[in-house]
Write a structure and sequence with these properties.
15% strand; eight-stranded parallel barrel; 38% helix; three-stranded mixed β-sheet; 403 residues; alpha/beta
Amino acid sequence: MTGFPTPFLWGAATAPHQIEGNNVNSDWWVYEQRMPHLGLSGDAVDSYHRYEEDMRLLADAGLTAYRFGIEWARVEPLPGEFSRAELAHYRRMIDTAIGLGLTPVVTLHHFTSPRWFVEEGGWLGETALDRFAAYVARVAEILDGVEWICTINEPNMLALMVLMARAINPDAVPAFDTPTVQPGEGIVIPRPTLEVGQRLVDAHHAAREVLRTKTTAKIGWTVANLALWAKPENAQYLESERYAREDLYLEGARGDDFIGVQSYSTQEIDATGMVPAPPSPDNTLTGAAYRPDALGIAIRHAAEVTGIPVLVTENGIATADDEQRIAYTTGALQGLRDAVADGIDVRGYLHWSALDNFEWGHWEPTFGLIAVDREDFTRHPKPSLAWLGGIARSNGADLPERS
């Protein structure tokens, strides 16, 4: 007995824009050039050409799953014009993963959209649902053998990124500073509007309907689980903030085959909204509080709201100290094990991230199990990769008990 179900997915996750490089038809390629506080993705870590090497490193370490994305801006560079070559590329990725013994967990939208989609009105435009459903229908043609499909990644964070459309459409709502790093004294991430949130729920449901007619895969989406909390004097603000920032999207997952839980830290709520994490030497490279217990909190809340099985699709820490990464992940997995012991149906754990990569405007936060030399793109596995692979090989039996 290990405390983990059998079978159980053990893997790592990535997103196409963050690792592939030269995603020139996407909205983010434009944002990076027009918003001065953002760095450039450029070649990223060239995983578009090196995906087999990346997957092999994961498989050789002992992991059994790889979550990766299909880039809409590559597949449909112009409205209604689908690239057969790009569809074939992503099919080769699926086949490579399966051939290496990695279960592919495929994400269809991970924050980036084609530039033309945003110019056409983006997620609030009249054509949005039809455009996204048409893209999903075409991609479904290459998904044979894929058992897990995530329609949209972190819609509650994507709803905030709608604000960034000002970089393309001058009449759109103002841009905010950054979705990733809390500079200086920290930032308060804006609360997404319910209008945008509901539109993304509708898009997810439209995609789910398409996929259920064209595939036999398990269908879900992933939510940024924030482990929100409030001091007693601010408890009255917690429910509305939680609904707008998280529960709207969790409720939108009811009827799915799974909910993707994505957890990194906790966040306090007061009368003004989110409270930045207070300065601490333990804070991560993004400015987030060091809270490995957040994963257990997030799993329990997501399961309670959705009533469906959980797949941990992201969990990790931005740190240059790999021993800290192992310590954080140990605590997170202990919380996951406790949740399973309490009867919560958890199907797998996918670490964020496989590679140090482009963190949405910033190169400094390093989440990866594998470091990458951005001059020659050589991969350098960290001790944490072998450690997590060992945990996977034992299906969690080698995970220590709480001290």
